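Colleagues,

For the teaching module next term, I've prepared a clean inverse folding example: a structure given as tokens, and then the sequence designed for it. I'd like students to try predicting residues themselves before seeing the answer, so please don't circulate the second half yet.
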């Protein structure tokens, strides 16, 4: 059975002290979740938050990692450094990284490989922008993103990858894909995995929905058979809202 999951992406929010306070509150509220719970924090929070949560069911992720193992890359943080903090997941290919930092298929392929080499599970993001959706190109866009950055993996390595479908037009805009749109895309993504790796792998692949998923719409989105949980942005910054979403899974 595939893992059901709710992952929170804090993005560039919360000072270290604020992040510790939020993680502490979540630790108190999330004692026996029915799904895997992950929080992705800024780099400077990772070691402190991972230590704080080490005896809890909440796992910790980085929001990104470098596309180099080590070396003279001032300001970058390697996958090995992320793993050394106690984090166990890493978000790769978020649309904001693709849009603002020009991360292409090759860069994301390298980052995925480095995560796996360092025993981090990638949460790999895919999804189309508004213009691509309006042109009915979402399927070809998502297929190209998978083929460009993760479908080179062996079956064993791919089984460690979590996919997150994020319609870019729904991130931070207040727009949300309808439950029907989410299910349609998740089923299509699962069909691509099946075509590449077989039905058993496809059935075991966790596919999250990201894109203005919140406490009010989470249950309806998660009710779809191919939606295994959510990658949550703004709603993960408040413990009460995030806990409501976790309980919806």
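(Answer key — instructors only)
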């Amino acid at each position: 059975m595939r893992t059901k999951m709710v992952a929170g992406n804090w993005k560039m929010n919360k000072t270290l002290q604020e992040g510790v306070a939020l993680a502490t509150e979540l630790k108190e509220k999330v004692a026996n979740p029915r799904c895997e719970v992950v929080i992705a924090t800024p780099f400077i929070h990772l070691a402190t938050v991972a230590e704080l949560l080490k005896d809890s069911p909440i796992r910790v992720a980085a929001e990104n990692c470098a596309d180099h193992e080590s070396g003279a890359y001032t300001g970058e943080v390697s996958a090995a450094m992320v793993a050394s903090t106690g984090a166990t997941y890493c978000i790769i290919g978020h649309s904001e990284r693709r849009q603002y930092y020009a991360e292409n298929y090759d860069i994301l392929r390298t980052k995925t490989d480095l995560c796996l080499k360092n025993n981090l599970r990638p949460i790999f993001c895919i999804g189309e922008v508004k213009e691509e959706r309006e042109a009915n190109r979402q399927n070809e866009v998502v297929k190209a993103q998978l083929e460009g950055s993760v479908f080179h993996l062996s079956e064993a390595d791919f089984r460690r990858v979590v996919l997150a479908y994020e319609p870019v037009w729904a991130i931070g805009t207040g727009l949300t894909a309808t439950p029907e749109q989410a299910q349609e895309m998740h089923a299509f993504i699962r069909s691509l995995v099946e075509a590449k790796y077989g039905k058993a792998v496809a059935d075991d692949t966790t596919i999250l929905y990201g894109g203005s998923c919140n406490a009010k719409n989470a249950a309806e989105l998660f009710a779809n058979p191919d939606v295994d949980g959510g990658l949550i942005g703004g709603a993960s910054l408040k413990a009460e809202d995030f806990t409501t979403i976790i309980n919806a899974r």
